[in-house]
Automatic annotation (TrEMBL):
The keyword Flavoprotein does not apply. PANTHER family: 2,5-DIKETO-D-GLUCONIC ACID REDUCTASE, NADP-DEPENDENT OXIDOREDUCTASE DOMAIN-CONTAINING PROTEIN. Substrate binds at H113. It comes from Paenibacillus whitsoniae. The active site is at Y55 (proton donor). PROSITE patterns: ALDOKETO_REDUCTASE_1 (PS00798), ALDOKETO_REDUCTASE_2 (PS00062), ALDOKETO_REDUCTASE_3 (PS00063). Signal peptide: none annotated. This is Aldo/keto reductase. Pfam families: Aldo_ket_red. Belongs to the aldo/keto reductase family.
Length: 276
Protein backbone atom coordinates (compact mmCIF):
# COMPACT_ATOMS: atom_id res chain seq x y z
CA UNK A 1 0.00 0.00 0.00
CA UNK A 2 1.20 3.48 -0.84
CA UNK A 3 2.05 5.70 2.10
CA UNK A 4 2.14 8.86 0.00
CA UNK A 5 -0.65 11.33 0.71
CA UNK A 6 -1.79 13.18 -2.42
CA UNK A 7 -2.43 16.65 -1.08
CA UNK A 8 -0.63 18.61 -3.82
CA UNK A 9 -3.18 21.00 -5.23
CA UNK A 10 -4.31 24.45 -6.24
CA UNK A 11 -5.53 27.49 -4.33
CA UNK A 12 -9.05 28.39 -5.46
CA UNK A 13 -10.12 31.98 -6.06
CA UNK A 14 -11.36 32.31 -2.48
CA UNK A 15 -8.14 30.94 -0.97
CA UNK A 16 -9.38 27.38 -0.32
CA UNK A 17 -6.96 24.55 -1.14
CA UNK A 18 -8.20 21.83 -3.52
CA UNK A 19 -6.15 18.70 -4.37
CA UNK A 20 -5.22 18.13 -8.01
CA UNK A 21 -6.41 14.52 -7.72
CA UNK A 22 -9.70 13.15 -6.46
CA UNK A 23 -11.80 10.01 -6.70
CA UNK A 24 -14.96 10.29 -8.79
CA UNK A 25 -17.86 7.99 -7.84
CA UNK A 26 -20.24 8.40 -10.80
CA UNK A 27 -22.01 5.08 -11.46
CA UNK A 28 -20.48 3.59 -8.31
CA UNK A 29 -23.21 1.62 -6.56
CA UNK A 30 -24.57 2.76 -3.21
CA UNK A 31 -23.63 0.49 -0.33
CA UNK A 32 -20.54 -1.72 -0.08
CA UNK A 33 -19.18 -0.82 -3.54
CA UNK A 34 -18.92 2.93 -2.97
CA UNK A 35 -17.97 2.55 0.69
CA UNK A 36 -15.07 0.31 -0.32
CA UNK A 37 -13.94 2.57 -3.17
CA UNK A 38 -13.89 5.67 -0.95
CA UNK A 39 -12.16 3.88 1.91
CA UNK A 40 -9.56 2.36 -0.46
CA UNK A 41 -8.84 5.71 -2.11
CA UNK A 42 -8.34 7.41 1.24
CA UNK A 43 -6.12 4.55 2.46
CA UNK A 44 -4.00 4.98 -0.69
CA UNK A 45 -3.54 8.69 -0.01
CA UNK A 46 -6.36 10.41 -1.90
CA UNK A 47 -7.75 13.41 -0.06
CA UNK A 48 -10.57 14.49 -2.40
CA UNK A 49 -13.86 12.70 -3.13
CA UNK A 50 -16.40 13.85 -5.76
CA UNK A 51 -20.05 12.77 -5.65
CA UNK A 52 -23.46 14.23 -6.54
CA UNK A 53 -27.05 13.94 -5.39
CA UNK A 54 -28.08 12.24 -8.63
CA UNK A 55 -25.43 9.52 -8.22
CA UNK A 56 -27.51 8.10 -5.38
CA UNK A 57 -24.47 7.20 -3.30
CA UNK A 58 -23.93 10.11 -0.92
CA UNK A 59 -24.74 7.98 2.14
CA UNK A 60 -22.14 5.41 1.13
CA UNK A 61 -19.58 8.12 0.47
CA UNK A 62 -20.17 9.49 3.96
CA UNK A 63 -19.79 6.02 5.46
CA UNK A 64 -16.56 5.48 3.54
CA UNK A 65 -15.21 8.77 4.86
CA UNK A 66 -15.96 7.75 8.42
CA UNK A 67 -14.67 4.20 8.01
CA UNK A 68 -11.34 5.45 6.65
CA UNK A 69 -10.26 7.00 9.93
CA UNK A 70 -8.82 9.99 8.04
CA UNK A 71 -9.64 13.23 9.89
CA UNK A 72 -12.55 15.07 8.29
CA UNK A 73 -10.57 18.30 8.02
CA UNK A 74 -8.03 16.53 5.80
CA UNK A 75 -10.60 15.55 3.14
CA UNK A 76 -12.04 17.72 0.37
CA UNK A 77 -15.63 16.64 -0.36
CA UNK A 78 -17.60 17.76 -3.42
CA UNK A 79 -21.27 17.20 -4.19
CA UNK A 80 -23.75 18.74 -6.62
CA UNK A 81 -27.36 19.93 -6.82
CA UNK A 82 -29.33 18.02 -9.44
CA UNK A 83 -31.36 19.60 -12.23
CA UNK A 84 -34.80 18.78 -10.81
CA UNK A 85 -33.90 20.58 -7.58
CA UNK A 86 -32.71 23.82 -9.15
CA UNK A 87 -34.17 27.17 -8.13
CA UNK A 88 -33.44 29.20 -5.00
CA UNK A 89 -35.51 27.57 -2.24
CA UNK A 90 -35.37 24.08 -3.73
CA UNK A 91 -31.57 24.27 -3.92
CA UNK A 92 -31.34 25.15 -0.23
CA UNK A 93 -33.49 22.10 0.58
CA UNK A 94 -31.47 19.87 -1.74
CA UNK A 95 -28.24 21.01 -0.12
CA UNK A 96 -29.54 20.16 3.34
CA UNK A 97 -30.60 16.71 2.12
CA UNK A 98 -27.15 16.07 0.62
CA UNK A 99 -25.44 17.23 3.77
CA UNK A 100 -27.52 14.86 5.89
CA UNK A 101 -26.90 11.92 3.56
CA UNK A 102 -23.17 12.58 3.67
CA UNK A 103 -23.29 13.04 7.44
CA UNK A 104 -21.24 16.23 7.24
CA UNK A 105 -21.61 19.62 8.89
CA UNK A 106 -19.92 21.38 5.99
CA UNK A 107 -19.36 20.65 2.30
CA UNK A 108 -16.02 21.71 0.84
CA UNK A 109 -17.32 22.34 -2.68
CA UNK A 110 -20.94 22.53 -3.86
CA UNK A 111 -21.64 22.63 -7.58
CA UNK A 112 -24.57 23.26 -9.91
CA UNK A 113 -24.62 20.02 -11.89
CA UNK A 114 -25.87 21.45 -15.23
CA UNK A 115 -26.85 24.90 -16.45
CA UNK A 116 -30.60 24.30 -16.63
CA UNK A 117 -32.13 27.41 -18.21
CA UNK A 118 -33.30 29.67 -16.68
CA UNK A 119 -33.22 28.22 -13.16
CA UNK A 120 -29.44 27.98 -12.92
CA UNK A 121 -29.30 31.72 -12.25
CA UNK A 122 -31.44 31.45 -9.09
CA UNK A 123 -29.60 28.27 -8.14
CA UNK A 124 -26.32 30.17 -8.22
CA UNK A 125 -27.75 32.81 -5.90
CA UNK A 126 -28.66 30.03 -3.46
CA UNK A 127 -25.09 28.73 -3.58
CA UNK A 128 -23.77 32.22 -2.88
CA UNK A 129 -26.07 32.35 0.16
CA UNK A 130 -24.87 28.95 1.41
CA UNK A 131 -21.28 30.08 1.21
CA UNK A 132 -22.00 33.40 2.91
CA UNK A 133 -23.71 31.54 5.75
CA UNK A 134 -20.71 29.24 6.21
CA UNK A 135 -22.26 25.95 5.10
CA UNK A 136 -19.93 25.56 2.10
CA UNK A 137 -16.25 26.39 1.82
CA UNK A 138 -16.31 26.94 -1.95
CA UNK A 139 -19.01 27.05 -4.63
CA UNK A 140 -18.84 26.32 -8.31
CA UNK A 141 -20.52 24.93 -11.36
CA UNK A 142 -20.39 21.92 -13.65
CA UNK A 143 -20.89 21.72 -17.41
CA UNK A 144 -21.04 25.50 -17.80
CA UNK A 145 -20.14 27.18 -21.07
CA UNK A 146 -18.56 30.63 -21.23
CA UNK A 147 -21.91 32.39 -21.62
CA UNK A 148 -23.29 30.59 -18.54
CA UNK A 149 -20.28 31.68 -16.49
CA UNK A 150 -20.63 35.28 -17.67
CA UNK A 151 -24.30 35.28 -16.68
CA UNK A 152 -23.84 34.16 -13.05
CA UNK A 153 -20.89 36.51 -12.59
CA UNK A 154 -22.96 39.39 -13.96
CA UNK A 155 -25.91 38.45 -11.72
CA UNK A 156 -24.02 38.22 -8.44
CA UNK A 157 -20.49 39.50 -8.85
CA UNK A 158 -19.33 36.13 -7.52
CA UNK A 159 -16.97 34.14 -9.73
CA UNK A 160 -17.40 30.35 -9.48
CA UNK A 161 -14.41 28.73 -7.82
CA UNK A 162 -14.59 25.65 -10.06
CA UNK A 163 -16.09 24.59 -13.38
CA UNK A 164 -16.22 20.80 -13.67
CA UNK A 165 -16.63 19.76 -17.30
CA UNK A 166 -16.04 16.93 -19.72
CA UNK A 167 -12.39 17.37 -20.65
CA UNK A 168 -9.97 14.86 -22.19
CA UNK A 169 -7.55 14.62 -25.15
CA UNK A 170 -10.40 14.45 -27.69
CA UNK A 171 -12.22 17.38 -26.04
CA UNK A 172 -9.49 19.73 -24.84
CA UNK A 173 -11.84 22.70 -24.13
CA UNK A 174 -9.14 25.24 -25.02
CA UNK A 175 -11.43 28.30 -25.24
CA UNK A 176 -13.18 27.45 -21.98
CA UNK A 177 -9.84 26.80 -20.31
CA UNK A 178 -8.48 30.15 -21.50
CA UNK A 179 -11.55 31.99 -20.21
CA UNK A 180 -11.28 30.20 -16.86
CA UNK A 181 -7.68 31.28 -16.50
CA UNK A 182 -8.60 34.89 -17.28
CA UNK A 183 -11.38 34.98 -14.68
CA UNK A 184 -9.90 32.81 -11.92
CA UNK A 185 -12.17 29.78 -12.35
CA UNK A 186 -10.45 26.47 -11.65
CA UNK A 187 -11.14 23.87 -14.34
CA UNK A 188 -11.83 20.27 -13.32
CA UNK A 189 -12.19 17.29 -15.67
CA UNK A 190 -14.85 14.63 -15.48
CA UNK A 191 -14.36 11.51 -17.64
CA UNK A 192 -10.69 12.52 -18.03
CA UNK A 193 -9.89 9.01 -19.27
CA UNK A 194 -12.52 9.08 -22.04
CA UNK A 195 -14.41 6.26 -20.29
CA UNK A 196 -11.55 3.86 -20.99
CA UNK A 197 -10.79 4.84 -24.61
CA UNK A 198 -7.05 4.60 -24.07
CA UNK A 199 -5.91 2.49 -27.01
CA UNK A 200 -4.47 5.38 -29.03
CA UNK A 201 -1.03 4.93 -30.63
CA UNK A 202 0.20 8.39 -29.59
CA UNK A 203 -0.83 7.85 -25.98
CA UNK A 204 0.71 4.37 -25.95
CA UNK A 205 3.98 5.64 -27.42
CA UNK A 206 4.26 8.45 -24.86
CA UNK A 207 3.34 6.08 -22.03
CA UNK A 208 6.10 3.69 -23.07
CA UNK A 209 8.64 6.51 -23.02
CA UNK A 210 7.92 7.28 -19.37
CA UNK A 211 7.21 3.73 -18.18
CA UNK A 212 3.64 4.77 -17.38
CA UNK A 213 0.15 3.77 -18.53
CA UNK A 214 -1.86 5.76 -21.05
CA UNK A 215 -4.24 6.67 -18.23
CA UNK A 216 -1.40 8.08 -16.14
CA UNK A 217 -0.15 10.09 -19.12
CA UNK A 218 -3.58 11.66 -19.67
CA UNK A 219 -3.98 12.55 -16.00
CA UNK A 220 -0.51 14.08 -15.98
CA UNK A 221 -1.38 16.07 -19.14
CA UNK A 222 -4.42 17.46 -17.32
CA UNK A 223 -2.49 18.53 -14.26
CA UNK A 224 0.25 20.16 -16.34
CA UNK A 225 -2.54 22.09 -18.08
CA UNK A 226 -3.73 23.26 -14.67
CA UNK A 227 -6.80 21.02 -14.61
CA UNK A 228 -7.98 19.09 -11.53
CA UNK A 229 -8.81 15.42 -12.22
CA UNK A 230 -11.30 13.00 -10.65
CA UNK A 231 -10.84 9.61 -12.34
CA UNK A 232 -13.44 7.01 -11.39
CA UNK A 233 -12.57 3.43 -10.43
CA UNK A 234 -13.74 0.78 -7.98
CA UNK A 235 -10.70 -1.45 -8.53
CA UNK A 236 -8.01 -1.01 -5.86
CA UNK A 237 -5.01 -1.35 -8.19
CA UNK A 238 -6.54 1.15 -10.65
CA UNK A 239 -7.30 3.59 -7.84
CA UNK A 240 -3.64 3.40 -6.83
CA UNK A 241 -2.33 3.53 -10.41
CA UNK A 242 -4.37 6.65 -11.16
CA UNK A 243 -2.65 8.38 -8.25
CA UNK A 244 0.89 7.63 -9.40
CA UNK A 245 1.20 10.74 -11.54
CA UNK A 246 3.29 13.02 -9.37
CA UNK A 247 6.67 11.37 -9.97
CA UNK A 248 7.15 12.38 -13.61
CA UNK A 249 6.52 15.30 -15.97
CA UNK A 250 5.65 15.31 -19.65
CA UNK A 251 7.93 17.24 -22.00
CA UNK A 252 6.56 20.20 -23.92
CA UNK A 253 6.78 18.11 -27.09
CA UNK A 254 4.68 15.33 -25.58
CA UNK A 255 2.18 17.83 -24.21
CA UNK A 256 1.83 19.25 -27.73
CA UNK A 257 1.31 15.76 -29.20
CA UNK A 258 -1.56 15.13 -26.79
CA UNK A 259 -3.00 18.58 -27.46
CA UNK A 260 -3.06 17.68 -31.16
CA UNK A 261 -5.45 14.78 -30.47
CA UNK A 262 -8.29 17.24 -29.86
CA UNK A 263 -11.36 16.61 -32.02
CA UNK A 264 -13.84 18.72 -30.03
CA UNK A 265 -15.62 15.39 -29.60
CA UNK A 266 -17.98 14.84 -26.67
CA UNK A 267 -18.77 11.57 -24.94
CA UNK A 268 -21.47 13.17 -22.79
CA UNK A 269 -24.35 15.60 -23.45
CA UNK A 270 -24.07 19.06 -24.97
CA UNK A 271 -24.31 21.58 -22.10
CA UNK A 272 -26.32 23.96 -24.30
CA UNK A 273 -29.04 21.35 -24.84
CA UNK A 274 -29.88 20.02 -21.39
CA UNK A 275 -33.20 18.16 -21.51
CA UNK A 276 -32.92 16.08 -18.35
Amino acid sequence: MSTQVFTEGVKLNNGIHMPWLGLGVWKTKEGPEVISAVRTALEYGYRSIDTAAVYGNEEGVGQGLRDSGVPRDDIFVTTKVWNADQGYESTLKAFEASRKRLGLDMIDLYLIHWAVTPSYRETWKALVHLQQEGYVRAIGVSNFQIHHLKQVIEDTGVVPAVNQVELHPELAQKELLAYARETGVQMEAWSPLMQGKLDHPVLKEIAGKYGKSAAQVILRWDIQNGVVVIPKSITPHRILENAQIFDFALSSEDMAQIDALNLNKRIGPDPDNVTF
